[in-house]
Amino acid sequence: MADRPSGATIDWPWAREHALAVTGLLTLIAYLLVGLTFAGVLPWPSIGRETSELLARVVTVLNGISLTFLLAGVYYIHNDRVARHRTAMLASVATIALFLVVYLQKVGGGGTMTFDGPAMVGLVYFPMLAIHLLLSALAVPLVSYALVVGLVTPIDRLPETAHPRIGRWAAGTWTLSLVLGIVTHLLLTFYGWEYVVGPY
């Protein structure tokens, strides 16, 4: 049974008229947080190796939870259950935001784990990691745009926007990025890593 609420979740006409500007701002903030953390500029609280490795596992769990909400959201919109789609997508975004904080704390305050397993496995691991990182970067503006437009646009007007088209690209890019992130962590876990203090 379809559930199609009316109105926008957030009544913010300026954001609705300037969705690209809001998307750009959100994207810039995310890129700056990551870039400044890896550059060692942001002062994250210092943590030890044991805590850093624990947070690495937490990051993977959060990725899995976010992926679950994301796939649920895709299922709901394909079945015209708009309210549940919106809830699932917001939960996925909230989870990935928490992931970002935990991940940056792990990197900025602790360290990173670099692959130290068999060379043959590395031939799979490193290309997967590169694709994961690329898709993660590409997903930020796509997801941000879909989020902003979805929140500030009345439901009945969403088909008139780029939300459905961008949303499909965002969901596909984000899904593959999350899956590869989980798989690369599992490869590290099973085949070994070298711990490096601080960002790369």
Automatic annotation (TrEMBL):
Keywords, sorted A to Z: Membrane, Transmembrane, Transmembrane helix
Recorded superkingdom: Archaea
InterPro entries: DUF420
Residue spans crossing the bilayer: 20-42, 54-76, 88-105, 125-152, 173-193
Pfam families associated with the record: DUF420
Keyword Nucleotidyltransferase in record: no
Keyword Transmembrane helix appears in the UniProt entry: yes
Protein name, UniProt field: DUF420 domain-containing protein
Source species: Halococcoides cellulosivorans
